[in-house]
Each structure stands twice: as structure tokens, then as C-alpha cells.
Amino acid sequence: MVATCLQVVGFVTSFVGWIGVIVTTSTNDWVVTCGYTIPTCRKLDELGSKGLWADCVMATGLYHCKPLVDILILPGYVQACRALMIAASVLGLPAILLLLTVLPCIRMGQEPGVAKYRRAQLAGVLLILLGCQLLWAKTESSLHSQHLVQFKQKYLEDFSYLQGD
């Protein structure tokens, strides 16, 4: 009974995680931009967000998004994150289907227990690959954002030094 409950809970959490990957891929809130602090920008309605598919600006209650359709103009990290997130979304479907066939309430003919165990292992490997791709894409985008912030700070310090401030 405990093994059955663990398998069902594992399937449900894997399914919810896969849906989360799909939702994360489609949202435009990967990077939040603001000229001030976030609470100040929310009060002034000058909050912007960037995602894999569009750059959005919220000003005076309107939410306007400009789609990123030119693939060749996009930076390499955005293209890589898009590819990794799409691959993770596509990779999740066979993993979820394999996990569904491994559940104890489903029997497929007169198959031996070893075949079910092999499918469970394959589904686990696919889900681990999915998680690694998701982690890699999010890390790549956040590292690139941090690199831009450091570059801008250094550039502004050098510029203010040249101006004599």
C-alpha cells in the first residue's frame, strides 16, 4: 500500500512539475525591469518584464507586449533558453506517459514486472534530464542578467569618473 501511494504521489508531482515547465516557458516574467525599486515602480506603473517570447511594459494600467519574432536578432542566451525550455516541455510528455503506464493500477497484458521496472527507470531518467534542462535554462538567463548589471555598473562608474564626478 505504501509503495502504491508513493508511486501515485510521484506521478502527480511529476505531472504538476511538467505543467509548471510549460507555464514557465510561456510566461513573459523571466526578468523584471525597473528604473527604481520594485515597489516604487509598481506605484508609478513603470514596471517592465522580459521573457523568452516578448518584452512587456506596464504603464498607466496598460500592459503592452512587443513579441520577439526576429530569431536572428535575438541574443544567443535567449535562443538557447528557448531551445532548452521547448526541449524540456517536449521531453516531459513521453516521461509522463511512461510513468502513467508504470502505475500499479494499470496492467498491460501479461508483462513481467521487469518491463514495468525498466519503464519506470526510463521515465525517471527523462524527468531528471527535464529538470537539468530547466535548471540550465534558468541559470543561463539569470547569469546573463547578473553579467549585464555588473557591466552597466562598471560602465556607469567609468563614465562618471571620466565626467569628473
TrEMBL record:
Q: Which PROSITE patterns match?
A: CLAUDIN
Alphabetically list the UniProt keywords.
Answer: Cell junction, Cell membrane, Membrane, Phosphoprotein, Tight junction, Transmembrane, Transmembrane helix
Name the domain of life: Eukaryota
State the coiled-coil residue ranges. Answer: none
Subcellular localization is given as: Cell junction, Tight junction; Cell membrane
- Output the Gene Ontology cellular-component terms: bicellular tight junction; plasma membrane
**Gene3D superfamilies on file:** 1.20.140.150
Which stretches are transmembrane? 83-106, 118-136
Q: Which InterPro entries match?
A: Claudin (IPR006187), Claudin11 (IPR003555), Claudin_CS (IPR017974), PMP22/EMP/MP20/Claudin (IPR004031)
Q: What are this entry's molecular-function GO terms?
A: structural molecule activity
Q: How does it sit in the membrane?
A: Multi-pass membrane protein
What this protein is reported to do is described as: Claudins function as major constituents of the tight junction complexes that regulate the permeability of epithelia.
Quaternary organization: Interacts with tetraspanin-3/TSPAN3. Interacts with OCLN.
Protein family membership: Belongs to the claudin family.
> What is the name listed in the Swiss-Prot or TrEMBL entry for this protein?
Claudin
Which source organism?
Homo sapiens
